[in-house]
Amino acid sequence: MVDENNLIEYALKQGADYIEIFHSQSHKIRKSISKDEKCSDLAYQSGWRITIYNQGGVSNFFSSDPQSLKKEIDKYTERASKLPIKYYDELIKRLANNTEELIFKPKKPFLDISDEEIDNKLTDFFQIIQQEGHNWELEIAIESTHFKESYFNSLGSKLIFEYPQSFLQVQAFPDISDFSRPYEKVAGGRQGLDLLLDYPEEFFSDIRSDLLEIQKASLLKPDKYDCVLSPTSAWLFVHESVGHSAEADVVLNGDSFLAGYIGQKIADTHVSIIDDPTFDKTGMKYYDHEGTKGREVRIIDHGIHNELMHNRRTASLLREKPSGNAYSDNIYNSALVRMRSIFVEPGDFAKEEILEETQNGIYIGSSIGGAVNSRTGMFNIQVQYAREIKDGELGTWYKASNINGSTLITLQKIGAIGKELMQQPAPCSKDKQNMILAAISPHVQVNDLQVGLNG
After folding, report:
1. pLDDT digits over 42-98, tens only?
2. With b meaning 16 or more CB within 10 Å and e meaning fewer, what string describes 329-359?
3. Enclosing domain of residue 297
4. Final residue of a domain: which of 215, 240, 261?
5. Pairing relationship of beta strands 393-398 and 433-441 according to DSSP bridges
6. pTM score, two decimals?
7. Distance CA 141, CA 367 (A)
8. Distances in Å between the alpha carbon of 169 and those of 137, 209, 399, 418?
9. 172, 155 contact by CB (below 8 A)
10. Are residues 192 and 241 both part of a single domain?
11. How many structural domains are present in the chain?
């Protein structure tokens, strides 16, 4: 058992000006079923990241050995004093002074759920989708992790969080030769495995219905259309095109097309894009991994590019206020500037009203991935399926496609925005660090958008 307060006291006696300790512990189980096999994996991880400031220098180290921490503190306290000051500002450091404890526990820990019960449920889910007469390439995976995270610093901060995180993922390839992308659907969040095992049957029967429609869908002619983006497609566009380019480290590295646009109008006045940790239902992002309390970041505020997302380093360099956007995917990686819950601020329209407003065009269904050239703002989002909008109603289904274009031009083409925010988990990768984020969005209308396999 490590006494963090004792370690802080020890470091100060060794001459450190300031020290912070972040500890992360996780238990994870993952099980999957496909046509050919069942897989199971159980993992445990525990470790510390310790940062020390001394005489203007800063150093940090990672360790999984509690017995070595004092020895490492000795070494890195001395090392910090010999390093030139780089990314450190007294004001920024002293903002990290908070105390809070939040513990969420599932009704039934996954370690108390038998393998047989999980396997039987996965088999039931599989059979609902993969019924006789169809032979889709199908995999269903269920994953649950129990996290314990704590943060202490020599200014008096004490943050303790304990929570479960569970996900259900379905991935399928319909049995047609020209369908090159998987259909994928994800559910879950900050909840226990017990809730996912009782997930409604409609979730799986809806997937089956979608696959049946996609299987007989036609190809969509590449062209520009007036579109209504589903929440997952709207989120992925915002996440890839605006979010990554508004991460301050990307801007400082000279890799963002948004550089120099602060204070300028880049979208219509009814468009606001926000990153707000309080909306996240997938994890615990009230504080980041540097102990900074998360705040709302209004990246675009009524059409104006208003601010960036920061960790302490980028905030110090740009003389801005930290926003609580510093996260690492595990204790042995440095905290990068990452999004938490980015979304388009809701408007006043119901989905049916947006379709009626559009009249004739394309409904962009769920999306499974995408990319943006952050230097140019050119984006490409992969779409699982699309549907015709005719006379304000949804009609013909189309096979996998994509949407693409310039972010700055597309932001100017956003029309009606839905009033209902929908949320599901979604993966995000940056510098080989993978995280699960809250994919949050309303429906969003975008006029004159390039759609099509060859667009």
Report:
1. 999 999 999 998 887 888 999 999 999 999 999 999 998 887 665 555 555 566 678
2. bebeeebbbbbbbbbbbbbebebebbbeebe
3. 223-451
4. 215
5. unpaired
6. 0.93
7. 19
8. 14, 17, 21, 26
9. no
10. no
11. 2
